[in-house]
Amino acid sequence: MIRAHGGPLGTARLRACPEDFRVDEQLPFQPSGVGEHCLIQVCKRGWTTEAVAKILAARAGVSRGAVSFAGLKDRHAVTTQWFSVHAPKACPALLPGCLEDGVEIVAATRNARKLRRGALGGNRFRLLVREVSAPRRAVERRLHAISRRGVPNYFGPQRFGRGGRNLQQARAWLLEGEPVRGRTVRGLLISAVRSDLFNRVLARRVAAGTWDTLLAGERAALDGTGSHFPVVAVDAPLRRRVAQGDVHPSGPLPGVGGDRPEGAVAALEDEVLAEEPELLAALAERGVRADRRPLRLMPRQLVWHWPDAQTLSLDFTLTAGAYATTVIAEVLETAAEE
């Protein structure tokens, strides 16, 4: 991963314990309070999102398919996230309280619609980074720069599995025909491939110094919306919006269809993606729809303090689909997750 703010300032330890990595999921809407779906807020520690979904299904007496969630949350963390359970009748088993050791229902209400993947307002992170070896002033200068300029919006290593095994399995499936069972697993493998290709394009833009700069022909992404629009010319008002963090350059999540950039931006993307023609063909064969993702990530409400000389406390909010580890990587080199 090519860094935008310079090399790491030192080393540190992330996730010394789950309580060092806290994530609170934010809904983009106000629950209606009525409807056929139970909307459940769960706090979990040491559990995967999928495992919690199965627990909720068993307690409610419904199939696993009746339980939905907006996104996956880390296992090695303390995370609060929302689930919906299709249960038209009253469901006393899904009231606030402890479900399992490390799984607690925090709140329960009703909603007219199920919770769909990606239906997130964002995530609030509260992190403790321990054993920091870097000078405090240098770390704080880097954090000030990040709060103003943002960071490259790389997909984090979690996306690719331990040691990149999701990518390895995806190649074996897509290119060699090795069978993969389960729609969920196949979806994760396709996501890993697209994320890796996006990261390659982003790395090229970081190397060129244009990851946070709009170019003519760009597809400009609106912050936090998933929408993008063509850039014919980069005028002063558009530059101001970029400086304010309202608009970002975007990169490809490869597939078929979708809107493409033009000119030099298209040429750069095509050059990078041409390194993997067989994977592109496999995505097209499976009808994966192309999309765009912002190249820049702006950590919002970024604050920090030092509980002691070698411990850094960080609080910030990221848009859905963004990785806190990507922010940390622009400051410190951290030990691999357990």
From TrEMBL:
Catalysed transformations (reactions): uridine(13) in tRNA = pseudouridine(13) in tRNA
Any Gene Ontology biological process: tRNA pseudouridine synthesis
Enzyme Commission number: 5.4.99.27
InterPro entries: PsdUridine_synth_cat_dom_sf (IPR020103), PsdUridine_synth_TruD (IPR001656), PsdUridine_synth_TruD_CS (IPR020119), PsdUridine_synth_TruD_insert (IPR011760), TruD_catalytic (IPR042214), TruD_insert_sf (IPR043165), TruD_pseudoU_synthase (IPR050170)
Positions of the catalytic residues: 74 (nucleophile)
Recorded GO MF terms: lyase activity; RNA binding; tRNA pseudouridine(13) synthase activity
Keywords on record: Isomerase, Lyase, tRNA processing
Domain TRUD: start-end pairs: 150-297
Group of enzyme by EC: isomerase
Gene Ontology terms: cellular component: cytosol
Cited function: Responsible for synthesis of pseudouridine from uracil-13 in transfer RNAs.
Family statement drawn from the similarity comment of this UniProt entry: Belongs to the pseudouridine synthase TruD family.
PANTHER family listed in its UniProt record: TRNA PSEUDOURIDINE SYNTHASE D
Protein name per Swiss-Prot or TrEMBL: tRNA pseudouridine synthase D
Organism, scientific name: Halorhodospira halophila (strain DSM 244 / SL1)
Primary gene name: truD
